[in-house]
């Protein structure tokens, strides 16, 4: 297996991601694909790991591989340097436990038993997903989870995880500009994605966004409102890893029940989406608040008029 890290403008997240890779999976070669970062902390992170990593920098101003994450994923797919299995991980993710022979045997068995599979999702599941999205059935032969397509049709593709790159190339796969288009392509090609019951990586909760060189006032407010920060995970303990492998697999591996981020408040909500997606929510909350204040003012005015009439 080879590991490809996709990076853009989040130096401390990238350093944390790489540190977790060399702590928990030092046996695998690592390539960092940076999408034209302007954050000096990215250079600092890359220099810290020196010759241990292979670095490919893509200039956003060039016409080659223009388009960000999925264009860089296509470049990684076209790069045949390494094994047919490639772990795609993003800079705001982290490996949380050691990878060993037991994991490798599980990956090989999954792809052997399911020749139609091109991807194994390797992250923990999110406990705060919409109702119905956590409906899975277990294939005990591997074992592996599959999502019920009648409940959610978004179970065919994810931008991170363990990819069988040889099968993707055989299927003439080409990464599309959006997640929805990639998911549609996966459905049309009839390829499949499983979910490991033994996850080993996860997005950091409440991470800052990196999409924009300059953040608007509303964007910055959204990040403040959502308590965005840098909350890396504590590595899983041996007893936690033992539980992960020996538990009843009907109990899903939910990030909020297993992982321990540092620096978060005890009652802080875990969010795994860009804060910009909260802007509409914030708009609605502010609009609702203004309506309540206006109604309160009207009621106060009526009360004053009624008392004056008396």
From TrEMBL:
UniProt xrefs under Pfam families: Glycos_transf_2 (PF00535)
Glycosyltransferase 2-like domain mapped to chain residues: 3-95
Region Disordered, residue ranges: 288-310
Annotated Basic residues bias: 288-301
Protein name in UniProt: Glycosyltransferase 2-like domain-containing protein
Organism: Thioalkalivibrio halophilus
């Amino acid at each position: 297996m080879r590991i490809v890290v996709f990076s853009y403008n989040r130096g401390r997240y990238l350093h944390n991601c790489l540190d977790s890779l060399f702590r928990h999976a030092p046996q695998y070669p690592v390539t960092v694909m940076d999408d034209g970062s302007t954050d000096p902390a990215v250079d600092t992170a890359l220099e810290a790991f020196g010759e241990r990593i292979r670095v490919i920098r893509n200039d956003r101003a060039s016409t080659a591989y223009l388009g960000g994450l999925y264009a860089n994923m296509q470049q990684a797919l076209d790069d045949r340097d390494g094994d047919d299995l490639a772990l795609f991980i993003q800079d705001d993710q982290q490996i949380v436990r050691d990878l060993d022979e037991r994991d490798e045997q599980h990956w090989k068995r999954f792809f052997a038993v399911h020749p139609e599979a091109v991807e194994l999702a390797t992250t923990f599941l999110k406990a705060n997903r919409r109702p119905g999205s956590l409906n899975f059935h277990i294939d005990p032969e591997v074992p592996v989870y599959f999502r019920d397509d009648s409940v959610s049709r978004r179970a065919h593709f994810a931008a991170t995880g363990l990819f069988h790159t040889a099968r993707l190339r055989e299927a003439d796969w080409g990464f599309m500009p959006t997640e929805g288009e990639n998911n549609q392509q996966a459905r049309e090609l009839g390829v499949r994605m499983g979910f490991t019951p033994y996850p080993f990586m996860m997005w950091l909760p409440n991470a800052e966004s990196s999409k924009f060189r300059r953040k608007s006032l509303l964007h910055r407010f959204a990040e403040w409102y959502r308590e965005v920060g840098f909350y890396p995970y504590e590595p899983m303990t041996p007893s936690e890893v033992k539980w992960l492998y020996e538990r009843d697999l009907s109990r899903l591996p939910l990030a909020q029940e297993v992982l321990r981020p540092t620096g978060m408040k005890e009652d802080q909500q875990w969010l795994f989406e860009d804060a910009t997606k909260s802007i509409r929510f914030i708009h609605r909350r502010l609009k609702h608040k203004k309506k309540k204040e206006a109604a309160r003012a009207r009621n106060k005015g009526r009360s004053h008029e009624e008392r004056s009439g008396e």
